[in-house]
Amino acid sequence: MPLPKAELHLHIEGTLEPELAFELAARNGVPLPYADTGELREAYRFEDLQSFLNLYYELMAVLRTERDFEELADAYLARAAAQGVRHAEIFFDPQAHLSRGVAMGTVVEGLWRALGRSEERHGVSTRLIMCFLRDESAESALETLEAAKPYLDRITGVGLDSAEVGHPPVKFREVYETAAALGLRRVAHAGEEGPPEYITEALDVLGIERVDHGLRCMEDPALVERLVRDRVPLTLCPLSNVRLRTVDTLADHPLPAMLDAGLLCTVNSDDPAYFGGYAGDNFDALRETLFLDEKRLRELARNSFLASFLEDDEELRARYLAEVEAYEFGA
Ligand code: ES4
Ligand code: ZN
Fold first, then answer.
1. Which of 23, 80, 171, 198 lies at a C-alpha separation of 20 to 30 Å from 190?
2. Contact between residue 275 and residue 310 where contact means Cβ atoms under 8 Å apart
3. 7, 13, 192, 201: which is the annotated catalytic residue?
4. For the domain that residue 245 is a member of, what is the CATH number?
5. pLDDT tens digits, 213-267
């Protein structure tokens, strides 16, 4: 039985496996510039974040109908459940679909068909987090939030993703203020490729409650001290960092140093179809390569539930935390 955990950094579009991409391409009559899944997989050699994003946005063309989004999410939830994920807070990128003529309702209703049945079917509770693309304008983000208004009962929070460098958090001050006024939780990618100053700015200007990645906080001791003091969770994605060359190898990953510094770290999969593994695979890689012991692994699992947006169901959080404490490794 795998260690129970929450997944807090997962782009649903990044769970599109090559097999499903080809199936949806055929069903929707969308041409793909790859002969087969093997050739597509060959394209999964990334230089940096942008080279990955180019393929990520290209492949989304196959997602067109509610049923497509439902199948995408259901396939992810099945895989996540098999790797011990008990709770998933799932990002989606509405602008990447709206710009292709796919309506907000198609995306949200489609995802909801899978999420609404997930507890019963997969034993995984879920939340949805809508991300703004930071390489698009602030006006576009505001329009996206406006388009989401009919669906806010299904959306727990907002996030910020896509190309980071050159797109500082301050650009999105207004949309985050509006989101907060609507009662939405706030997170943002910061310090993945961008500098530690972006993390500080996202905390100060956007009022984020959790930092996605946040890896580069380690370059700023005063920031580390603040994150530790304020118990701000970081959603790390080790296999993503290796594939996007944010770290040289997994053995060089700062996660052990970050835990030693007292940071509230969690382990997540980011875009598992592209980066070589789901949540459990990330845990396994850390155990094998960084020699994390059972105490550390349990801490990471505990952190994932502590960092989750389960304030609306503390009973469920307590049950998950009890599962983590009761877990027997090797059983
Ligand atoms: C992403 Cl790894 C990563 N970073 C920033 N934005 C993203 N969107 C999907 N995956
Ligand atoms: Zn991400």
1. 80
2. no
3. 192
4. 3.20.20.140
5. 999 999 999 999 999 999 999 999 999 999 999 999 999 999 999 999 999 999 9
- Sequence-distant (6+) residues with CB within 8 A of 263 are 217, 224, 227, 228, 234
Task: Identify whether 120 is a catalytic site residue.
Answer: no
Domain count, the chain: 1
pTM as predicted:
0.98
CA 283 vs. chain centroid, Å, equals: 15
For the Cβ of 193 lying below 6 angstroms from any atom of ligand 1, the answer is no
Whether 86 maps to a domain, the answer reads: yes
State the residue range of the domain holding 284.
5-315
Q: What are phi and psi of 192, to 5 degrees?
A: -90, -70
- Look at ligand 1, atom 5, and give the residue with the nearest C-alpha: 162
> Does residue 291 fall inside a structural domain?
yes
Residue tagged 């989004």 (tokens):
69
In a domain, 320, yes or no: no
- 143 assigned to some structural domain: yes
Among the bound ligands, the one closest to the CA of 212: 2
Query: What pLDDT, in 10s, does the model give residues 182-214?
Result: 999 999 999 999 999 999 999 999 999 999 999
Q: Are 237 and 9 in contact (CB under 8 A)?
A: yes
